[in-house]
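User: structure tokens for this one?
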Amino acid sequence: MNGRIFAIIKPPFCLFLDNPVKIMRIIKLTFIKLQASFIAILFSFGLKAQQVDTLKDVPSLLLPRFTTGIVKLKSGVVNKGIMNYDLVGQQMIFLQRKQTLVLREPQLVDTIFLANRIFVPFEKGFYELLAQEGNTALFRQHRAHFEIPGAQIGYGLTSKTVAPQYYQQIYGPTGAIDLTVPEGSKVVDDSQYWVRINGEMNNFRNRKQFLKIFPGKQKELEKFISQNKIDFAKLEDVKKLFLYTLSLK
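Assistant:
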């Protein structure tokens, strides 16, 4: 048996031993195939297939529909995919052959470009990069949770927020993606902003928290916020305030 295998394998290698150009071509093709395999293992298939047409305007997703995006890995490898962002699970999900896929190793990703937006991986999901100048950057952590009025949380108590274990029942303990919103519930936005200065991250949701990040500029910022009627619930207002902050010396 071993002799037969050796007999089958031996001739092709013998043909290329005296041709270095052909050997380099084989090595290059092999490397390309390994890169493709590496991309493939980044994704794990959802256990439940879903039709593309049913995945429009899902309230727990950031975008109204799945959109073609670009995934750039830290290794330099670039790949395309049809994707969206799961607000509740705070994870990037993909569509392939009418199945949902989850980005299994986000720590290997450098940047995702989706719908003319930039997303960067962090410990708790992908944050959208809104603005950056030098070592200072503004991010938005898009996230949400389900609320069911009167959901039982034990000892006869009730709460509007769906408990973590109930979320796992919805999405499956093995990571299967089921994007159906629980009956009688609603998706509530729970997003927040982050400012990164020299690598240090500070989050904020309101005026007081934002001013605390820039203690030396509070007087100018207070005036700008009042004059421009900055609303921290509006993304464009927050971005406008951040850009003004960067302009202050």
